[in-house]
Design a protein that fits this description.
mainly beta
Length: 113
């Protein structure tokens, strides 16, 4: 059974940082590109960042998070990470770990003073 379990969300003040983690199981993690997608209340999903599978690592970011967020992965221990810096209120959303065959339940990130 494929499982994607996110953690690390929470309440943070504007300008703060959070590090999200996603633990994957039930498939060969290192063979798949992985993504983070977020969904704010009342809005559709927004792609945030992606990272290629093992080998040559290529990372991509939405313009809204470029130079603030960093995506990484550990192909041995299976977590996917999203380091979020200089957080803004508009970053408030549920963040989901995603690959081509499934989504995790997500972790809530709230940026507010």
């Amino acid at each position: 059974e494929v499982q994607l379990v996110e953690s690390g969300g929470g309440l943070v003040q504007p300008g703060g940082s959070l590090r999200l983690s996603c633990t994957a199981s039930g498939f060969t993690f290192s063979s798949h590109g992985m993504h983070w997608v977020r969904q704010a209340p009342g809005e559709g999903p927004e792609w945030v960042s992606g990272i290629t599978c093992a080998g040559i690592t290529i990372t991509t970011f939405a313009d809204s998070v470029k130079r603030r967020f960093i995506i990484s992965r550990d192909n041995v221990k299976n977590p996917l990470y999203l380091e979020m810096n200089s957080l803004k209120p508009e970053d408030t959303a549920v963040y989901h770990c995603v690959y081509e065959e499934g989504w995790g339940q997500g972790t809530q990130v709230t940026v507010s003073s």
